[in-house]
Design goal:
mainly alpha; 4-stranded mixed β-sheet; about 65% helix
Length: about 500
Amino acid sequence: MPTERNKKAFLYFSEVKNSLVFLFFFIITFFIRFPFFFRDYIDRDESTFILLGQSWADGFLPYTQLWDLKPPLTFAFFAAIISVFGKSFIAIRLAGVFLVVITSYYTYKIALSVLSKKASIIVGVLCIFLLSLFGSLQGVMSEHICIAFFIPALYFLQSKKTLGYTFLAGLLMGATVMVKLNMAFPIFFVGLYLIYEAFFAKKHINLLHVLLFGTGVLAVIFATILPYYLSDQAIVWWESVILAPLEYTEARRYSIFKLAPIFVITILFLFYAYKSNSLNFKNRTVQIVLVAIIGVLMSFVKGGRINGHYLIQLHPMLLILVAIVTQKLTTDFKLKAPKYILLIVLLIPAESYLEYANIIKNNYERKTFFNGEGFSVPSFIKNNNLETKNILFFEYHIGYWNLDTLPPTIASTHPSNICRDELFTFFDNPRKNSLEELKFIMEELRPKTVVIRKGRRILDKKEIEENEYIDAYLAKHYNNFATVENAEILQRLERP
């Protein structure tokens, strides 16, 4: 009988050990992300993190030799991998697998307190999907790193009441904010929630828990300052980690209409959950997850922008609440999953299937699984003995790493930073604006080799004057030496 079958299924899931759940999550995550182990770059940001990680592994603190707009633990993550495994895309991408598994596993652990084990496992699997599918999510983003700290911390606060676990949660939260500064908002909101609990719900925690939590957060932050303080460069940390992001958020804000969709969807969902009594807002797990969600959303408001990968910071918590409402609906209305649901689930990683085909094809045609212009362009440059001094990558800038060289200026660490002149003052750039920076690179450093993407605007469309300058300069002083896949390798016409 169906009821008997359902009962057996329930008993089966309830008896599954957490270690097996972790292994199950690892297998799914590895399968989805494995074909991208061999891609040169998936997102520009990841390439930049690798460059700064290499710089740190070489003995240069972040923001000294190279510069980018992230707190130091983002680069520490990559520096640690490079220090142990050398220049290995496979090691970096495998580390990304573990980040996703850790996040999904602790999302599952939080869900267990409010959902059945079967539903919690489904939440974990969906978390893997949302953190691994589509576009830049296959790379190792700073959001992957920070949420792998944040979700375990949230779990310890939600389920563990001891002082030791509270302090550990604080340490993890401190690591979170030193990976993504905007996570200060949900951490602050969680801190306020703990203060509220200490005064009004003393059965859970007391003021000592709050103090230990705050101490843990601050301990990690101060630990990141220490190497700069010891080398008499504390101002570098302050300007790069605190002041620069604040300036950037004010200078680069989206229209309110671009921010609206995720807010509208979340508010409508919560309103429905409240009106239908689908969520027990008095439940501690629901409360702490909701507080974290509100904190993340407030960080989006402050930041003034939402890129697709930013939602990694939101998905795990939102999944838990959605699952609670869904489980109640299926129970109340005796809804059953359609028989073809498994087929739909199997089709979700379609991009991974395509990438498996891509690496097989690449190995057949080029005798290597590694693919992308980040590999093929440096290989072409080496094979043809092209000049790499002051080489400039307007695209595929992971090429600096594969060529064992550096960007021509600190502003060009990330190609888009060339036009973020509001940030120049924070790394003492003597050039005052992006046009001056471009002219210095092209007319003073005079790179023999320049790499651009075929058929694509070199700089952002908003940079009208800068695009006009670089287009005219390249047309006059460079010719297309070769086209390698989607990359054009330009060579300077006159001698330096």
